[in-house]
Specification:
There is one protein chain. With 429 residues, the protein is α/β, with parallel strands linked by helices. The protein has one domain: TIM Barrel. It contains 13 helices and 13 strands. The chain has helices at 22-25, 36-42, 59-73, 84-87, 92-105, 129-145, 158-167, 182-201, 223-246, 261-268, 320-333, 355-373, 416-428, and strands at 15-19, 77-81, 109-115, 152-156, 207-212, 216-218, 275-278, 283-286, 301-303, 340-344, 378-384, 403-406, 411-414. The strands form 3 sheets. It has an 8-stranded parallel β-barrel with strand order 1-2-3-4-5-7-10-11, surrounded by 5 helices. A 3-stranded mixed sheet has the order 6-8-9, covered by helices on one side. A hairpin with a 4-residue loop joins strand 12 and strand 13 (411-414). The two termini are 25 Å apart.
Length: 429
C-alpha cells in the first residue's frame, strides 16, 4: 500500500526524469538500417507474442505528442536512446535533431544514450573493431547534438546485453556462447572508454554510463551457496563496475579477456562525471541445483525470494535493496564513485489504475532518500518508462509505462501513476 505521508524532500537541483529506448518505441523501421534485434525478431519463437518493433509506439512520427506528455508530467529530463542503425541511414540524425529541439523548447533536458542494444546488423561485439566504430559514431552524434546536450550516456546495461544476448541467447543477437561471451563484455567497456574520449574531444561534458546493478543475496550461509552468490555478483555487478571505477577487473577475470587488457583498462577507466545505476530487484543465488537454467548448466542457481510481492514480470519488489545497493557501492568504491544517477527504476503492471506501480515507485523513492541520508551522492532519478513499449523478448506482454499505449490505435492514455508522479514532482518543486 502507498503511505499517505508525502514523499520525502529531495535536495534542490535533484534531477527528475523518465527513460525510454529507441528500438522499443520509435517504430519507422523502414527508414533506418536493420539491427541485430530486427534479425532476432524475424526468427519464429524468439519473442513471446511473435511481435516485432517495426511500429512499436510510432514515436518517430508522434514525438511531439510524447514531448507534450513529458512537459505535462513536469520532469526536468528525458533519457532516450539514439539508434545507431538510424544514424547510419540518410537523414537519420535529423530526427534526433528535431527531438532535441522539441525537448529544449519544452524545458526538458535531453539525455541521450548512445547504445541501448540495437547494434547495426553486420557488426559484432566479439570483434574489437566494433569498439572503435562505436567511438566514431559517438563523435558524429556529439557533433550534431552537442550544442544542446549537457548529459550523455554511452552504453545501457552491457551486463544484460552480454549475458542475455551473447551468453544465453534469449536476447538479440541470440548467441549461446556461455563464458566465451566474455570478449563481448570487454569490447563494450572498451567502446565506452573510447566514446568518453571522443565525446570529450568534441567538447562534451556530463558523461556517464548506465549499468544495471542489484544486491546478490546468498540462498543460505552454506559455503557453496555463498561461493555461488559471490560468483554471480562478480559476473553481474563487479565485472562491469570495477574496470570503470577501479581500473581493474575482479580477480581471475582479467586473464580471460582479449587483447592488451592493461592498456585497455586505462581507456575503460576514463573519469566519469556520473555513474548511472539501473535498479529493479535483488537476486537470491545458491549453488547449482542440478537443473538447467536458461537452457544451460550454470555454476549457480537463481532462487525465488519468498514473502515479497512480484511484478507482472515476476520480479520481487524489494525497495530497501536499493538502499543496500547504493550504500554498498559507496563502501566498496569510496571516492572513486562519482555522483550517481538512478537511470532506470520501474515495474511491469497492467491496467490504467495502476496502484501497484504507484506503491512500487513510492517505496523506491523512500529507499533512495534513505541512501542520500546515509551519505550517498545521488543526483537524479529516472522512471522506466514513459510509455508502454516493445519489451524485448516479451514483446508487448509487459507494460512498464506511466502512459498506456493502445498499440492498435497508438492512442496514449496517462495512467494513475502518471498523475501520482506529476504530483510528486510538483511537491518537490
Amino acid at each position: 500500500m502507498v503511505t499517505t505521508n508525502p514523499v520525502p524532500r529531495f535536495p534542490a537541483g535533484f534531477l527528475w526524469g523518465v527513460s525510454t529506448s529507441a528500438h522499443q518505441i520509435e517504430g519507422s523501421a523502414g527508414t533506418r538500417e536493420r539491427s541485430v534485434w530486427d534479425a532476432f525478431t524475424d526468427r519464429p519463437g524468439r519473442v513471446s507474442d511473435g511481435s516485432t518493433a517495426a511500429v512499436a509506439c510510432d514515436h518517430c512520427r508522434r514525438y511531439r505528442e510524447d514531448v507534450a506528455l513529458l512537459a505535462g508530467l513536469g520532469v526536468g529530463a528525458y533519457r532516450f536512446s539514439v539508434s545507431w542503425p538510424r544514424v547510419d541511414s540518410p537523414g537519420g540524425l535529423d530526427f534526433y535533431d528535431r527531438l532535441t529541439d522539441e525537448l529544449c523548447a519544452a524545458g526538458v533536458r535531453p539525455v541521450p544514450t548512445l547504445f541501448h542494444w540495437d547494434l547495426p546488423l553486420g557488426l559484432d561485439w566479439r570483434e574489437r573493431d566494433t569498439a572503435a566504430r562505436f567511438a566514431a559514431y559517438a563523435a558524429r552524434v556529439a557533433d550534431r547534438l552537442g550544442d544542446r546536450v549537457s548529459t550523455w550516456i554511452t552504453l545501457n546495461e552491457p551486463a544484460e546485453h552480454t549475458l542475455l544476448g551473447h551468453a544465453l541467447g534469449v536476447h538479440a543477437p541470440g548467441e549461446r556462447l556461455l563464458f566465451d561471451a566474455l570478449p563481448v563484455a570487454h569490447h563494450q567497456l572498451l567502446a565506452h572508454g573510447l566514446a568518453v574520449r571522443a565525446l570529450r574531444a568534441a567538447g562534451a561534458t556530463g558523461i556517464g554510463i548506465a549499468n544495471s546493478h542489484g544486491p546478490t543475496w546468498p540462498a543460505s550461509d552454506d559455503p557453496t551457496d555463498r561461493e555461488a552468490a559471490g560468483f554471480y555478483d562478480v559476473l553481474l555487478n563487479r565485472m562491469f563496475a570495477d574496470p570503470l571505477l577501479l581500473g581493474r577487473y575482479p580477480d581471475g577475470i582479467g586473464g580471460l579477456m582479449p587483447g592488451d587488457v592493461a592498456a585497455d583498462l586505462a581507456v575503460i577507466a576514463e573519469p566519469l562525471d556520473f555513474y548511472g545505476v539501473n535498479y529493479y530487484a535483488p537476486t537470491r543465488v545458491g549453488a547449482p541445483a542440478g537443473e538447467r537454467q536458461f537452457g544451460a548448466e550454470l555454476p549457480f542457481s537463481v532462487r525465488r525470494i519468498e514473502g515479497r510481492p512480484v511484478t507482472d514480470s515476476g520480479w520481487p519488489v524489494v525497495p530497501e535493496a536499493l538502499t543496500e545497493l547504493l550504500t554498498g557501492f559507496r563502501a566498496r568504491y569510496g571516492d572513486r564513485l562519482p555522483p550517481v544517477l538512478i537511470t532506470e527504476n520501474g515495474c511491469a503492471y497492467d491496467g490504467l489504475d495502476d496502484q501497484a506501480r504507484i506503491a512500487y515507485l513510492d517505496g523506491h523513492l523512500r529507499a533512495l532518500h534513505e541512501a542520500l541520508a546515509a551519505g550517498v551522492d545521488v543526483r537524479g532519478y529516472f522512471v522506466w518508462s514513459l510509455l508502454d513499449n516493445f519489451e524485448w523478448a516479451e514483446g508487448y506482454t509487459r507494460r512498464f509505462g506511466l502512459v498506456h499505449v493502445d498499440f492498435a490505435t497508438q492512442r496514449r492514455t496517462p495512467k494513475a501513476s502518471y498523475g501520482w508522479f506529476r504530483d510528486v514532482l510538483r511537491a518537490q518543486a
